[in-house]
Specification:
34% helix; four-stranded mixed β-sheet; 10 strands; 192 residues
Length: 192
Protein backbone atom coordinates (compact mmCIF):
# COMPACT_ATOMS: atom_id res chain seq x y z
CA UNK A 1 0.00 0.00 0.00
CA UNK A 2 1.37 3.39 -1.04
CA UNK A 3 0.21 6.45 0.92
CA UNK A 4 0.67 10.03 -0.27
CA UNK A 5 -0.29 13.39 1.17
CA UNK A 6 0.06 16.77 -0.48
CA UNK A 7 -1.00 20.16 0.86
CA UNK A 8 -0.79 23.49 -0.96
CA UNK A 9 -2.69 26.76 -0.72
CA UNK A 10 -5.04 25.35 -3.39
CA UNK A 11 -5.58 21.71 -2.42
CA UNK A 12 -5.17 19.18 0.37
CA UNK A 13 -4.98 15.59 -0.87
CA UNK A 14 -4.74 12.25 0.93
CA UNK A 15 -4.28 9.11 -1.16
CA UNK A 16 -3.83 5.38 -0.62
CA UNK A 17 -3.06 3.09 -3.55
CA UNK A 18 -2.89 -0.70 -3.75
CA UNK A 19 -1.51 -1.43 -7.20
CA UNK A 20 -2.69 -5.04 -7.31
CA UNK A 21 -6.13 -4.67 -5.79
CA UNK A 22 -9.68 -5.60 -6.71
CA UNK A 23 -10.95 -2.32 -8.15
CA UNK A 24 -12.30 -0.89 -4.90
CA UNK A 25 -12.44 2.89 -4.71
CA UNK A 26 -13.44 5.56 -2.25
CA UNK A 27 -13.16 8.89 -4.03
CA UNK A 28 -14.13 12.29 -2.58
CA UNK A 29 -12.99 15.33 -4.55
CA UNK A 30 -16.16 17.40 -4.42
CA UNK A 31 -16.36 17.09 -8.22
CA UNK A 32 -19.03 14.53 -9.08
CA UNK A 33 -18.00 13.75 -12.64
CA UNK A 34 -14.32 13.47 -11.70
CA UNK A 35 -15.17 11.12 -8.82
CA UNK A 36 -17.07 8.99 -11.34
CA UNK A 37 -14.07 8.91 -13.72
CA UNK A 38 -11.56 8.02 -10.98
CA UNK A 39 -13.87 5.29 -9.71
CA UNK A 40 -14.15 3.86 -13.23
CA UNK A 41 -10.36 4.00 -13.62
CA UNK A 42 -9.81 2.10 -10.35
CA UNK A 43 -12.47 -0.48 -11.19
CA UNK A 44 -11.11 -1.34 -14.63
CA UNK A 45 -7.42 -1.06 -13.69
CA UNK A 46 -8.10 -3.43 -10.76
CA UNK A 47 -6.36 -1.08 -8.35
CA UNK A 48 -7.65 -0.11 -4.92
CA UNK A 49 -7.76 3.65 -4.58
CA UNK A 50 -8.75 5.86 -1.67
CA UNK A 51 -8.50 9.52 -2.56
CA UNK A 52 -9.75 12.57 -0.72
CA UNK A 53 -9.22 16.07 -2.04
CA UNK A 54 -10.25 19.37 -0.49
CA UNK A 55 -9.73 22.00 -3.17
CA UNK A 56 -10.50 25.60 -3.99
CA UNK A 57 -13.61 24.65 -5.93
CA UNK A 58 -14.92 28.20 -5.54
CA UNK A 59 -12.22 29.20 -8.07
CA UNK A 60 -12.83 26.27 -10.45
CA UNK A 61 -12.00 22.56 -10.70
CA UNK A 62 -8.58 22.94 -12.36
CA UNK A 63 -6.34 22.84 -9.27
CA UNK A 64 -8.13 19.83 -7.78
CA UNK A 65 -8.08 17.79 -10.99
CA UNK A 66 -4.44 18.56 -11.79
CA UNK A 67 -3.23 18.02 -8.23
CA UNK A 68 -5.04 14.67 -7.99
CA UNK A 69 -3.15 13.65 -11.13
CA UNK A 70 0.12 14.76 -9.53
CA UNK A 71 -0.47 12.78 -6.34
CA UNK A 72 -1.81 9.64 -8.06
CA UNK A 73 1.06 9.78 -10.55
CA UNK A 74 3.68 10.05 -7.82
CA UNK A 75 2.12 7.07 -6.00
CA UNK A 76 2.18 5.00 -9.19
CA UNK A 77 5.81 5.96 -9.78
CA UNK A 78 6.77 4.82 -6.29
CA UNK A 79 4.89 1.54 -6.76
CA UNK A 80 6.36 0.69 -10.19
CA UNK A 81 9.97 1.85 -10.39
CA UNK A 82 12.44 0.34 -10.75
CA UNK A 83 10.22 -1.64 -13.14
CA UNK A 84 10.75 -5.37 -12.99
CA UNK A 85 8.72 -8.50 -13.80
CA UNK A 86 5.88 -6.57 -15.44
CA UNK A 87 4.70 -6.51 -19.03
CA UNK A 88 5.63 -2.79 -19.25
CA UNK A 89 3.47 -2.07 -22.32
CA UNK A 90 -0.32 -2.03 -22.44
CA UNK A 91 -2.95 -0.84 -24.86
CA UNK A 92 -6.70 -0.83 -25.22
CA UNK A 93 -9.54 0.42 -27.37
CA UNK A 94 -12.59 1.13 -25.27
CA UNK A 95 -16.06 1.76 -26.64
CA UNK A 96 -18.92 3.47 -24.90
CA UNK A 97 -21.97 3.67 -27.13
CA UNK A 98 -20.96 5.85 -30.12
CA UNK A 99 -17.55 6.73 -28.63
CA UNK A 100 -14.31 4.81 -29.08
CA UNK A 101 -10.99 5.84 -27.54
CA UNK A 102 -7.60 4.13 -27.64
CA UNK A 103 -4.96 4.23 -24.94
CA UNK A 104 -1.38 2.98 -25.19
CA UNK A 105 0.95 3.08 -22.21
CA UNK A 106 4.64 2.36 -21.69
CA UNK A 107 6.27 2.24 -18.26
CA UNK A 108 9.37 3.66 -19.91
CA UNK A 109 10.50 5.83 -16.97
CA UNK A 110 10.17 8.68 -19.48
CA UNK A 111 7.24 11.06 -19.19
CA UNK A 112 5.33 11.89 -22.35
CA UNK A 113 1.72 12.52 -23.30
CA UNK A 114 -0.01 12.50 -26.65
CA UNK A 115 -3.62 13.56 -26.19
CA UNK A 116 -5.58 13.53 -29.44
CA UNK A 117 -9.19 13.89 -28.35
CA UNK A 118 -10.64 16.85 -30.26
CA UNK A 119 -14.05 16.57 -28.58
CA UNK A 120 -12.48 17.16 -25.15
CA UNK A 121 -10.76 20.45 -26.01
CA UNK A 122 -13.77 22.52 -24.90
CA UNK A 123 -17.26 22.22 -23.58
CA UNK A 124 -18.83 21.09 -20.32
CA UNK A 125 -19.82 17.73 -18.89
CA UNK A 126 -22.28 18.94 -16.29
CA UNK A 127 -20.21 21.53 -14.44
CA UNK A 128 -16.91 19.84 -15.40
CA UNK A 129 -14.75 21.52 -18.07
CA UNK A 130 -13.97 18.84 -20.66
CA UNK A 131 -10.46 20.27 -21.18
CA UNK A 132 -9.57 19.14 -17.64
CA UNK A 133 -9.43 15.53 -18.85
CA UNK A 134 -6.20 16.37 -20.69
CA UNK A 135 -4.86 18.26 -17.65
CA UNK A 136 -5.41 15.18 -15.47
CA UNK A 137 -3.74 12.81 -17.94
CA UNK A 138 -0.77 15.17 -18.33
CA UNK A 139 -0.25 15.46 -14.56
CA UNK A 140 -0.64 11.69 -14.19
CA UNK A 141 1.78 10.73 -16.97
CA UNK A 142 4.45 13.26 -16.01
CA UNK A 143 4.37 12.39 -12.32
CA UNK A 144 4.16 8.61 -12.84
CA UNK A 145 6.93 8.96 -15.44
CA UNK A 146 5.27 6.91 -18.15
CA UNK A 147 4.50 7.46 -21.80
CA UNK A 148 0.79 7.72 -22.58
CA UNK A 149 -1.07 8.11 -25.86
CA UNK A 150 -4.83 8.74 -25.71
CA UNK A 151 -6.62 9.05 -29.06
CA UNK A 152 -10.27 9.57 -29.86
CA UNK A 153 -11.34 7.31 -32.71
CA UNK A 154 -14.93 8.57 -32.80
CA UNK A 155 -17.62 9.99 -30.55
CA UNK A 156 -20.02 12.87 -30.09
CA UNK A 157 -21.20 12.76 -26.48
CA UNK A 158 -18.55 14.36 -24.24
CA UNK A 159 -19.43 12.18 -21.26
CA UNK A 160 -19.01 9.05 -23.39
CA UNK A 161 -15.70 10.20 -24.90
CA UNK A 162 -14.24 11.14 -21.51
CA UNK A 163 -15.40 7.94 -19.85
CA UNK A 164 -14.06 5.84 -22.72
CA UNK A 165 -10.70 7.62 -22.30
CA UNK A 166 -10.49 6.89 -18.57
CA UNK A 167 -11.54 3.26 -19.04
CA UNK A 168 -9.17 2.75 -22.00
CA UNK A 169 -6.34 4.03 -19.81
CA UNK A 170 -7.45 1.69 -17.03
CA UNK A 171 -7.35 -1.41 -19.22
CA UNK A 172 -4.01 -0.42 -20.80
CA UNK A 173 -2.64 0.24 -17.30
CA UNK A 174 -3.85 -3.13 -16.00
CA UNK A 175 -2.20 -4.90 -18.93
CA UNK A 176 1.08 -2.99 -18.55
CA UNK A 177 1.45 -3.82 -14.84
CA UNK A 178 0.58 -7.49 -15.35
CA UNK A 179 3.14 -9.66 -13.59
CA UNK A 180 5.45 -11.58 -15.90
CA UNK A 181 8.34 -13.23 -14.06
CA UNK A 182 10.06 -13.98 -17.37
CA UNK A 183 10.33 -10.25 -18.18
CA UNK A 184 12.95 -9.46 -15.55
CA UNK A 185 13.87 -5.86 -16.29
CA UNK A 186 11.69 -5.26 -19.37
CA UNK A 187 14.27 -3.19 -21.25
CA UNK A 188 17.26 -3.82 -23.48
CA UNK A 189 19.02 -1.13 -21.40
CA UNK A 190 18.91 -3.37 -18.33
CA UNK A 191 17.21 -0.73 -16.18
CA UNK A 192 13.96 1.25 -16.15
Amino acid sequence: MISKNRATKETKIELELELYGRGAAQIQTGIGFFDHMLGAFAKHAWIDLNLRCEGDLQVDFHHSVEDCGIVLGSAIKEAIYPAQNIERFGDSVLVMDEAAVSAALDFSNRAFLVFDCPSLKRGKIGEFDAELVEEFFRALAFNANFTLHISQIRGENLHHVAEAAFKALAVAFRRAISINERAGVPSTKGVL
